[in-house]
Batch of 2 targets.
Target 1
Amino acid sequence: MDKIKVLIADSYSLMREALRMAIEIEPDMKVVGEACSSDEVVAQARALSPDVILMDIFIPDDKDGLSAMDELLSLDHQNRIVVLSSSTDEELIEAAFQSGVLAYLFKDAPRSELLLAIRKAARGEKYGRQPNYQDTESRFPSAFFYAFSGYVK
């Protein structure tokens, strides 16, 4: 069986590295590329044809994350997107799903949940867990969040 090819898009290099490590120890997955901007993720998706694009909805560039997702979903290759973000904005989450995203996870999700979402997305399935919309402060008291929110690449 072929491995699930994952493209990671996040503005923080430390986050990309942590995600790469979490994914690559799985026998059925491999990271085929990394991007730090919306333009770069679109270019890499064109060049690499990943099975799943794991991306933050807030990545820097001329376009916002939703515009980048729309562009990714309009490419010839069937791109399957899993969003991993710290945003709990209900309108933004709804807009992401309406654009065609298959899963939306918060950055404090357990690794097992992330891997399940990637596997489901690779099969073209939506990840069924509905997010629990709590305010960001109460969802992210961990050192993990603060470490990445202040990290400069």
Target 2
Amino acid sequence: MFNREFAFKTYCNLRYAAPAARARRFLSSTYRTGYASLKNFYARAAGLHLGAFATVLNAKSRFKIESILVRSPNWIGDQVLSFPFFYHLRKLYPKAYITAVCVDWVQDIQFKDLVDEVFVLPRPYKNTWPGKFIEKFEILENASRQLKSIRNYDLAIILPGSFSAAWLVFRAGAKKRIGYGGDGRSFLLNDKRYHKKHEKIHRAQAFLNLLEGLVNFKAENTFPGEFSFFDPIKSWRNVVPLEPPVENFWVLAPGSQATSRMWPAEYFLKLSMLIYEQTHIKGAIVGGENEVSIAAWLLKNGNNCFLDFTGCGSVTSYWKLFQYAAFTVSNDSGLAHMSSLCGSRVYIVWGGGNPIHTRPLGPGLIYINSRSVDCWPCERNICSKKGTEELQCLKGIHPESVFNEIKKHGLLEKYK
């Protein structure tokens, strides 16, 4: 009989009380007690019979796969970069039933033409400790039970690097569980993958590499480098898109989840006024609820050179705007990836991130303006510098230089 209290204590100990090193020592001591004890520990934690656990532990990679569980990325940009992964997964297993598990803020970006079902995890609402943690654990337990009751999963692939993502598919009873080690979660996987130390690998490639070893798939021979196609009508067939303006327009996306990647709003204002003075085309501001206040400030100070589309719908509802826009200017954000995926020419003012890892891949043309200060790329969400040195990777990129580069790349050519 499965002991819920034991599972909760195990989750707490391995996720929070013990970092990865302590977890390894714990498991190492378990190994020393003998193989039977190891099987007992895992079987108790997962609620599995010992015979079934031994079968999973010794399973070969080449078995018939009819049902696949994929834990999708948690961020808009990462979900967009997972498109090659889902595309090749479906090509590898055209008849398999694929379930994508995701958080609610990326549910609209799941590629409906490449998966059969989207299972959405509820959002925790408690903000204080330990209530938030307990609620998250209960969400994972309830979700794993629901998934387990729906079907038996032959294969699970975990794209996020978090402990909780691996715990979910482990508790859902997936037979083969593929993911990257780290975050104390290696014991939850029976097909662990590792990044090579100091390896400079794009995130889309890292996702694709998880398919290696499945039906002779070789990621290095199939990754296209840039997307050459994408059909939003097929992938997001239930989305009602926002209708673009009748007049010519360009798109600006001034928001980001990370302050280290947000070009100052006054810089966006200056750039927009320069573009309007030369071309008389307005900038359509896009973004969610967090960008509504930025849009209001730009509209107030912009001398009628803006159109406001912030907070008007889901992120996928912008796909027509991106397709019909003259071009897009964006921070390094999920909307930069979205606009490029939908075919827009995208000029990105790049902050603290590393374009080697997270550069958008198209099919829209991508232009990146970055400033290599001594701490760049830090890949932090919040700049660690203070005073005059704070955000110099962004503040040192001036609107006039961006305007000149946009002209140099021919983005304004037909609007002079």
